[in-house]
Amino acid sequence: MEITVYPQQKSSFQGPHELYFKNLIKRKKKQVMEKNGDNRKLRVCVATCNRADYSKLAPIMFGIKTEPEFFELDVVVLGSHLIDDYGNTYRMIEQDDFDINTRLHTIVRGEDEAAMVESVGLALVKLPDVLNRLKPDIMIVHGDRFDALALATSAALMNIRILHIEGGEVSGTIDDSIRHAITKLAHYHVCCTRSAEQHLISMCEDHDRILLAGCPSYDKLLSAKNKDYMSTIRMWLGDDVKSKDYIVALQHPVTTDIKHSIKMFELTLDALISFNKRTLVLFPNIDAGSKEMVRVMRKKGIEHHPNFRAVKHVPFDQFIQLVAHAGCMIGNSSCGVREVGAFGTPVINLGTRQIGRETGQNVLHVRDADTQDKILQALNLQFGKQYPCSKIYGDGNAVPRILKFLKSIDLQEPLQKKFCFPPVKENISQDIDHILETLSALAVDLGGTNLRVAIVSMKGEIVKKYTQFNPKTYEERINLILQMCVEAAAEAVKLNCRILGVGISTGGRVNPREGIVLHSTKLIQEWNSVDLRTPLSDTLHLPVWVDNDGNCAALAERKFGQGKGLENFVTLITGTGIGGGIIHQHELIHGSSFCAAELGHLVVSLGGPDCSCGSRGCIEAYASGMALQREAKKLHDEDLLLVEGMSVPKDEAVGALHLIQAAKLGNAKAQSILRTAGTALGLGIVNILHTMNPSLVILSGVLASHYIHIVKDVIRQQALSSVQDVDVVVSNLVDPALLGAASMVLDYTTRRIY
Question: The UDP-N-acetylglucosamine 2-epimerase domain covers which part of the protein (predicted)?
């Protein structure tokens, strides 16, 4: 059976960057040859630590070997390559006909955190002698392993130029810190994706020393599909196994949470045993926790189970064939989210080890793999599928680009790195006034009636607040916003508040990425397709954030209110309209078209009253301030609103508060209207509980306290028993819209993700 080849995704490795690089080569080639000497070969040291990095370095090594007139290659082998328990993988380097100049035993056994640190120290002790002897012009270091950090540290301190492969990527463990540390030590960078290139630039690396080449392993694997694969499958899994009817499992410990990763591995093996498919299980890498993972394998009898083949190592050429024709790959190896995408093989990525990686459509993430059922469900969803092939990480032409890049290196250039820092507009002196400044935000709340601006401190204290009526036209409104913000910013200086930015809360649908109000509510006229960010940023020279008022209320609860520290909760605002915000896994949900959490427009009755959105029977049509005002006017017109002890002045409009007052004084009809409104809100919240299953629901706004008891009664009567224990509370925040607008600024500028 041959693999079905789907159309491949467009590569990002061609275009302006490729043209730029060709021009750079032409410009520098003559100059470099003259400076380095026509007969001067570049002495390149390639250091490989384990089976994974060799799969990326081997194509480069083969390329260097084919051009002996330009390069001299020295190979240093260290790390787990030289350990029997991990397959003695240095042998595959010898089988590839490379001369190993140096073997360094650098691993301190123990497979725990201390052993990793001791291994780095041992490598640092041994490497100086090797580098003094070899005297390379440049050392090629790959990736993010602790061994690689020792290599980069040694080379940098010994004034040897470093070329780092796969910098700028994000995974999700301690590897990120190691990878970025090597980036700062390295002089030249070869990255695999456009995002990684942008990350390197953001890290102040010199753009002229960054090459977007793609992953070198793709040069081999993109040409490997059509080889005889059935003999490889039979060799490793048995004669009775068919293509697409087996699983490849490769799972490593997560060094920042070893206990959980061992438990997750145990659940994975249990799920694979239950799934009952032939499975090739590779032993984990040498990170802290691997010894415990091997114990789990042996405790469950995996090495002797008829459905499993447990191996320490598979040569890369054969491993490619195995994953290309597997029914599924499962685990947390970077191979699953990087290389396997080239074949469209389904992948189940478990836990957080690769959570930051760019992935193709073939990857299904199971971030909280805390039960066997979750993993089994993922296996049922993924096994046997075929996805489009992905070229996110390479197009098969990385090595030629890397060799050109190596030839362009001018050894006469100063060794000292240059960092390209972004310009800093002002240098604030560290005098006592600056140290004692209160870090603050300007918060703007655009309501249907009022326009409010406040100075809000980091602790959520409203230092000063300004209120004006919201003008009816766009021009008057934007001018008033600018005027109030300028005045507030000037006042902040007198109050010794340092303004970090501006946050704006407004009604309607908002694109927070662009700072644009897409569509507004009927309460705010001339407020569609409005760019709020640009005029404010240009006037105040400050960053500006904009979001919907319901989302801002949720952000306020997350930072200052009862949602602080909670992973999942929902906020509903009960005011003139009904809005809301959803926090899921600590993050605000915006939705694909920025329309998430329009909770006021959940339909709770097919034949209900008309809603301002054009539909019928929405929560807002029953429970909003506008809806209560409508019902109050009806009662007043029929002389059924006022009871003893009540009066409405002639110049005062009848509103929701009069209805509430009448209900408190015993008006049965007013009480019935409020009960219906609270029931509609309660039914909406029941739907939210059944859909989102949050751990808390927070009612905010002027009407919240009047609805809370009715809502809880509805939940007791209508909700599933599994969600009846979810707490519903009234917000204790006085100005959630202003505090939420401020939190956008304060969270971002103090490095919390928003």
Answer: 69-407
How far apart CA 148 and CA 183 sit, in angstroms, is 11
Strand (E) or helix (H) holding 397: none
Specify whether the CB–CB gap between 251 and 265 falls below 8 A.
yes
Q: Which pLDDT does position 652 carry in this prediction? A: 86
Distance between CA atoms of 611 and 185, rounded to whole angstroms?
61
Answer whether 495's CB lies under 8 Å from 464's CB: yes
Which is catalytic among the residues 137, 395, 445, 549? 549
User: Is the confidence at residue 186, as pLDDT, over 50?
Assistant: yes
Q: What is the DSSP string of 220-288?
A: HHTT-TTS--HHHHHHHH-TTPPTTSEEEEE----TTSHHHHHHHHHHHHHHHHHHT-EEEEEPP-SST
d(CA 532, CA 480): 13
Task: Identify the pLDDT of residue 523.
Answer: 65
Q: Note whether 73 and 46 are within 8 A (CB).
A: yes
End-to-end CA distance of the chain: 48
Distance CA 657, CA 623 (A): 13
Q: At which residue do the structure tokens 């992953």 appear?
A: 215
Query: At 378, which amino acid appears?
Result: A
Q: When comparing pLDDT for 315 and 487, which is higher? A: 487
How is residue 207 annotated by DSSP?
G
Helix/strand number for the chain, H first, E second = 25, 26
- Summarize the confidence of residues 718-729 as an average pLDDT: 94
Average pLDDT over residues 285-306: 91
pLDDT average, residue stretch 706-728: 95
Of the candidates 680, 682, 655, 659, the residue with the CA atom closest to the CA atom of residue 669:
659
- Among residues 449, 495, 492, 506, the alpha carbon closest in space to that of 738 is found at 506
Which range of 39-48, 149-158, 465-474, 490-499 scores highest in mean pLDDT? It is: 149-158
Given a contact cutoff of 8 angstroms between Cβ atoms, the answer to whether 165 and 216 are in contact is yes
Residue 599 clears pLDDT 80, i.e. is over it: yes
Q: Any idea what DSSP says for residue 565?
A: T
Rg of the Cα atoms in the chain: 32
DSSP state for residue 610 in the 8-state scheme:
B
Neighbours of 295 (CB within 10 A): 11
pLDDT in tens, 343-395: 999 999 998 888 888 888 899 998 887 889 999 999 999 999 999 888 888 88
Average pLDDT value for the chain: 88
Are 438 and 463 in contact by the 8 Å Cβ rule? The answer is yes
- Rounded to whole angstroms, the Cα distance separating 549 from 445 reads 8
The yes-or-no answer on residue 245 being catalytic is: no
Q: Could you read off the pLDDT of 316-345 as tens digits, one per residue?
A: 889 989 999 999 999 999 888 888 988 999
Average pLDDT rounded to a whole number, residues 256-270: 92
The Cα 599–Cα 583 span in angstroms is 13
Q: Are 442 and 503 within 8 A, CB to CB?
A: yes
Q: What share of the chain is helix, strand, coil (3-state, %, to 5)?
A: 45, 20, 40
Which residue carries 């580098």 as its tokens?
Answer: 131
Helices 533-540 and 474-494 cross at an angle (nearest 10°) of 40
| pTM for this model (two decimals) | 0.53
**What are 85's two structure tokens?**
């328990």
pLDDT above 50 for 34:
yes
Compute how many other C-beta atoms are within 10 angstroms of the C-beta atom of residue 398: 28
